[in-house]
Design a protein that fits this description.
Elements lengths: L1 H15 L13 H14 L5 E2 L9 H10 L6 H30 L3 H12 L2 H9 L5 H16 L3 H8 L7 H12 L12 E3 H22 L3 H8 L5 H19 L5 E3 L1 H10 L2 H21 L1 E2 L6 H10 L7 H10 L2 H7 L1 H9 L3 H14 L11 H12 L6 H14 L11 H6 L8 H4 L8 H24 L3
Parallel strand pairs: 1-4
Antiparallel strand pairs: 2-3
Helix pairs in contact: 1-6, 2-3, 4-7, 5-20, 5-21, 7-8, 7-9, 8-9, 9-19, 10-12, 10-15, 16-24, 18-20
Length: about 475
């Protein structure tokens, strides 16, 4: 209860505090969501929305429908206030289902408190939600959390029904829930020998894909594209050092993963054997209908390339040495460090759950290797339960957990003001490495070398402290 009160106080503080000066408080992507909330009923039926962001209109179109229904003027003040209501309502739903989930997990009280801190006491919840209120991440997170909870309760109809909201918010949430549902049952005994050693493959494949992406761009004389994705001039020595550091980091992490994943042929065989196609058919029909309907109201105003997105995910870890883990610690605090130091038990808890969970985790890893840490926000519940199970096996006292929570609060840096003198002008000019670095350092690809050095130092000290705590208190 004390942690909830602290959360509510700090969350409220963030909403009465400073707001992004961009687009009158809407922010970057928020400018589009603001327009949806203001003009949905007019725009959707006339010009429509672009083919990418038409799948990002929840819950903003509901604001517009509500305003029209009750004849409320969509003024700036009313739109801002409506988002306040949605965010606090969203937080209430998160708290309700979070506590239902940890009750289902039956963890120790200390474990529940620490997982609570990792989920709620981070920069995203305590700063970004109140600073840039027009966003989808917080609502996508809730959709996944609620659907995930119903999956754990084996209430599959509710889980699938809720997951359909993800199509209008962040479709990846929907696809991950469906993976968990379709491949929720253990595979047959005959299939269990047809596996890959997951850790070794990931430790080799991920850095090779990053290095291969760089090499391909140089061979094709696409250096400007490389620089546009790294936000710095391309330097071969720096890229080489970054590649070595990235490879070493991944090896250190995944060498502790002695789990396996089934071959694609095994998944295909079990898909037929378990009649999983019936589950897919159940969700495919409404999915196709929704997809076609939204695309019928889409236009080509905004270009989004899936290939470019995948390319940047593999390139961004090479901007600076260790930028991906440092950026995640900057955004999520102690959570990445706990996963790293408990990775052996953590990975076993994932791969032993179900084949679908293993596939879902591989999808999570894809988003996690991107230094833009916010990309994994909607999927956080996927790793919190396996992490909680691993933490529950450690002998963490109440005082130790209190110290870890205090460390988490210090790391989330919500208390550092952003809107200082000259900040707004720097933000408008996209001066990533000027005074607006206060903001951009929280989004890995735009982190400066100076910010990286500071957060790398913080990460090393914090990592040493957590390592000592976790290793000395294992049974």
């Amino acid at each position: 209860m004390l942690l909830v009160l602290v959360l509510l106080f700090l969350f409220t503080l963030s909403f009465v505090g400073e707001k992004t000066p961009l687009n009158n408080g809407a922010g970057y992507d928020g400018a589009f969501y603001y327009q949806v909330a203001q003009n949905f009923t007019e725009d959707f039926w006339t010009t429509g929305y672009d083919r990418f962001r038409v799948f990002r209109i929840f819950p903003f179109f509901l604001i517009n429908l509500f305003f029209n229904l009750f004849n409320i003027e969509p003024s700036h003040a009313n739109l801002m206030h409506s988002m306040y209501v949605l965010h606090f309502g969203n937080l209430a739903i998160q708290l309700f289902f979070f506590f239902k989930l940890i009750k289902l997990c039956a963890w120790k009280q200390t474990t529940s408190a620490l997982v609570f801190g990792c989920f709620f006491f981070n920069h995203f919840v305590l700063k970004n939600c109140g600073y840039e209120i027009f966003q989808t991440d917080a609502f996508a997170n809730t959709i996944f959390l609620v659907s995930y909870y119903y999956l754990q309760r084996q209430k599959f109809l509710q889980a699938i029904a809720i997951s359909f909201l993800g199509i209008l918010t962040w479709p990846t949430v929907t696809y991950i829930i469906w993976l968990l549902y379709i491949f929720k049952d253990p595979f047959s005994e005959n299939a269990r020998d047809l596996k890959f050693h997951t850790g070794k493959i990931l430790a080799v494949a991920l850095p090779l894909l990053s290095i291969g992406a760089v090499a391909t761009l140089y061979l094709l004389h696409k250096q400007p594209l490389l620089e546009s994705m790294l936000f710095i001039p391309a330097s071969k020595p720096l890229l080489f050092v970054s590649a070595i550091a990235w490879s070493a980091f991944l090896y250190i992490i995944f060498r502790n993963c002695d789990c396996h994943i089934y071959t694609p042929f095994t998944y295909a065989h079990e898909f037929v054997r378990q009649s999983a196609w019936k589950k897919l058919a159940l969700i495919a029909i409404p999915f196709i209908a929704i997809n076609l309907y939204l695309r019928a109201h889409a236009n080509d105003e905004f270009y989004f390339s899936e290939v470019a997105f995948v390319l940047q995910v593999f390139l961004r870890p090479l901007k600076y040495p260790f930028i991906t883990p440092v950026a995640h610690i900057c955004y999520f605090g102690i959570l990445p460090l706990l996963v790293i130091f408990l990775f052996r038990d953590f990975s076993k808890n994932i791969f032993n759950r179900s084949p679908g969970y293993a596939l879902a985790f591989l999808a999570f890893i894809f988003f996690a290797i991107d230094s833009e840490a916010r990309h994994v926000i909607p999927l956080l519940p996927l790793i919190l339960v396996p992490l909680g199970d691993a933490l529950d096996k450690t002998n963490l006292s109440a005082k130790t957990v209190a110290a870890l929570l205090a460390l988490q609060m210090a790391l989330n840096h919500f208390y550092i003001p952003l809107n200082v003198e000259g900040f707004a002008d720097s933000l408008v000019k996209n001066d990533y490495y000027g005074i607006s670095q206060r903001y951009f350092m929280n989004f890995g690809p735009w982190m400066s070398i100076h910010s990286l050095a500071i957060w790398a130092g913080i990460s090393l000290v914090t990592g040493f402290l957590i390592y000592q705590i976790v290793q000395k208190r294992k049974f």
